[in-house]
Amino acid sequence: MTRLTTVARGLIAAVAALLASTALTPTARAGTDPRAPKDFVALRSVDPTILQEMRYITPHNFAGERIDGYRQPLCILTRPAAEALHKAQRRLLRQGYTLKVYDCYRPQRAVDHFVRWAEDLNDQTMKGEFYPNVDKTRLFADGYIAAKSGHSRGSTLDLTIVRLPAKPTRPYHRGEPLAPCFAPQGERFPDNSIDMGTGFDCFDTLSHTLDPRVQGRQRANRLLLKNTLEDLGFVNLPEEWWHYTFKPEAHPDTYFDFPVAGKSLTSAH
User: Model-level pTM greater than 0.85?
Assistant: First the structure.
């Protein structure tokens, strides 16, 4: 009897330890997430007037699903980039416009998600909108997807301009019919952005900022964004009219992986 009681007690203790370990797992995992350096801030703490439509926390992106690492619809940037963006916003507000950001700091785990998606050639869910003319086997070779992104360094962002008063952009409904991102503005997915010639994240050469086929009002709109930002230290990626990096970068050689969430920030936000 004594031996059985000892064995029973041992089993009960083992089960209790297992349950305790299981219960603590989420907390332990949450506690292991890296934190942002002190010079990273939420953009809204520097300029709350800039619109934020954070695409990668929604399924309306080229992967068709919420992207790893995006826990809140929050634009996070290094403080120098955020303060320069605030100056750009003040200039545009005087002209009857506002900036709108689609993506800011991007954790490495999100970039890894993009890579996994690009390697899955069977997943063509969003091809009709974001890459109608590009074979998915070409995404790496053509430079649309890469294993590293400047966004992960904290001074790069994707953005556009919206005319004031800003009209809301309707939400995307998963499974709805898709229109090519380079279709005329009235035919592609509605966006309250001024007409830039293509939608955001359009995998097509028409997205090149100075593509000669983009003329008239569309070209003028791209140049308004480009000239405003470049006057304040931002540098455009020529292949993407929406993509800008503030120079000099605060962390030119570091690719961070803390989640996009207020809890990641050590400074007030």
Answer: yes
